[in-house]
Amino acid sequence: MCVNDTTTFDFAAYDPDGDELSYALVHPYAGADLTNSVPTPPANYEDPPKVVYNGGYNFQKPFGQTNGSVSIVNSVTGLATFFAPAVGSYIVAIEVTEKRNGVVLSKVRLDLQILVLDCPPNQRPNISAPDGQSFIIEEGEPLCFDVEATDPDVNPQDVVKMTAKGPIYDGSNNYIGPLATFISTIEYGESNGEFCWTPECGQARDEPYVVRITAEDDGCTPKFNTMDFTIQVTPFVGADSIQGPRTTCRYNQYNYSAFGFDPASSFDWEVDEGSILGSDSSSTVLVYWDGAGPGNLRMREISQWGCVGEWTEIDVDIVASPPLPVISGKDTVCENESGLSYQVGLNAGSSYQWWAFNATIGSVNQNQITISSYNAPNFVIRAVEVNDIGCPSDTGELEVYVNVPDPAVIGPQTVCPNATDVAYITIQNSGSTYDWTVTGGSISSGQGTS
């Protein structure tokens, strides 16, 4: 260190189990002496002898108690700040304590000798981040940010280089996952770098990931400055519900939609007792329910980064539609016949819809209708039964034929006066009767026949 010049040291340690670490200044051990360079270990453990400080110095103030010296260690990060107002040789010890659930497991220390020389002061580099030091991203989401460092010294201006440190960059502290990259320039007076990291799906956690960027110059003595960045990785949860009918009619199709999702996501749908018509990767699907039992529809959202959310599902009650209505009534009628009535079976809770084509419905009484008028040669009646939850049946149909007799008379069209036994006939239709009328003559036989 240079006298009257603030210097920082990074004593950060890493624990492979991820236990809590804390840092503190402690009293250094004395170690060997000039007459016994290899001390004999005692039979039973005892604390080794500690160094003896000169008056006005101690392990908490190794550079002096009353001369304005500085000796501070950040208990969380291990970053130490020292300032010595006088040249000399000083002894400092840093101890790292490992805890798990509040219980101390181990202590590791570093004793070091610091030489304070009379050398020109060297200012440490300035370090900054245009995008800030705290980031919140979703698992699977890529992150890149810039870091800049400059040397405040003017003459001479030092070369500045930046380096990264942290589990997600170097794999320390038993970290398992994709590693980050940090690419920076090394130049006189300044350095620019870009840090990039993409967490895997499943790397979300409550505690943020921390990476430290260090900017160091090549002055005498070299100085460095650090900046810690926190990256909070949040879990991808996915859509929280499905919207759509929970009671459906069998052999019918319905739309279902995801709710509470990111528009950039895709989706994965699965269905029991039915099938998906069309795309099964959008936020809305069309489901055709053709199963006999209760149905189930499942959906999970897939983020734009490829992370899969939890399954969300709904149970669907598939209700059978009413059977095909059978329309009863005359299927052959005479022209201008009145009082025609048609009906289907009556089921409790059902309603009925009627249609007539080439005819007019006179009145409707649930499962029964009357026809007020109709036209030849036929007319059609159709009916649909709808149960109490709105499921329609297939369409029942009855075609009714309109019988309009149109006999053709066959016989002589020219006869002599007073001619007798002149025969006229028409086509014989089974079941029909015939009524003959003669003008200008008389019927001698055959009335009522063809």
Give a structural overview.
By secondary structure, the protein is mostly beta strands. The protein is 1% helix and 43% strand. It contains 1 helix and 30 strands. It has one helix at 167-170; strands at 7-10, 20-25, 70-73, 79-83, 88-100, 103-116, 126-128, 134-138, 143-150, 159-165, 181-184, 187-188, 190-197, 209-217, 224-234, 241-243, 247-249, 252-259, 266-272, 274-277, 284-289, 295-302, 312-319, 332-334, 340-343, 351-357, 359-365, 368-374, 378-386, 396-403. Strands 8-15-14-10-12 form a 5-stranded mixed β-sheet. A 4-stranded antiparallel β-sheet has the order 7-9-13-11, with no helix packed on it. It has a 4-stranded antiparallel β-sheet with strand order 16-18-21-20, with no helix packed on it. A hairpin with a 2-residue loop joins strand 27 (359-365) and strand 28. The longest helix has 4 residues, at 167-170. It is rod-shaped. The termini are far apart. The mean pLDDT is 92.
Largest sheet: 5 strands, mixed
Task: Report the strand count.
Answer: 30
Distance between the termini: 138 Å
Q: What general form does the structure show?
A: rod-shaped
**What is the count of DSSP helices, taking H or I runs of 4+ residues?**
1
Radius of gyration equals: 50 Å
Structural class determined from secondary elements = mainly beta
Strand content: 35-45%
Q: Kindly state the mean pLDDT as a whole number?
A: 92
Which percent bin holds the helix content?
A: under 10%
Low-confidence stretches: none
Instruction: Describe the strand arrangement of the main beta sheet, using strand numbers.
Output: 8-15-14-10-12
